[in-house]
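User: Can you predict the 3D structure for this chain?
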Amino acid sequence: MATTKNINAGVPSLGNTGETTLIISAGLGGSLEQGTVCWGHDTGVTEQNVKDFADGWTGYAAVAGSGDAEYMGLNPANEAVSPTWFTGTMKATIEIDHYGSGSGPAETLHYKTGVTKEACEAAGWTAYSGQFNSTGWVKIRITANSP
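Assistant: Here is the predicted structure, written as structure tokens:
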């Protein structure tokens, strides 16, 4: 039986590493959210935006729970892809299970970045190995590894 990876408690947290201060502003007619974001955890987050996994994540993940108990379950080799998010230009980090602990095998992270949303979506995936330079827009892919 395959082990499901439960990604939980503030995952992923796409955060600013402190080199650049970002301000949340209403752009594009008030419809653009921007800055740091935390998916899957609500209480006590330090990111500028709080989102649920149900807010645009796609792929083969089962989302369950709500609020601080929300998690995304991935079977081995399955993946989930975030919505394209506007961070602004910044040095970015991606953290898994920042506000709690998940369970199951480790996951592999990839990201895309682009100056425009369209450029980000058209870009190839880059294996995440630590801090990277966001050129404005970011998209994240999480793949569950086999146990």
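Residues 1-31 have pLDDT under 50 and may be disordered. The longest strand covers residues 132-144.
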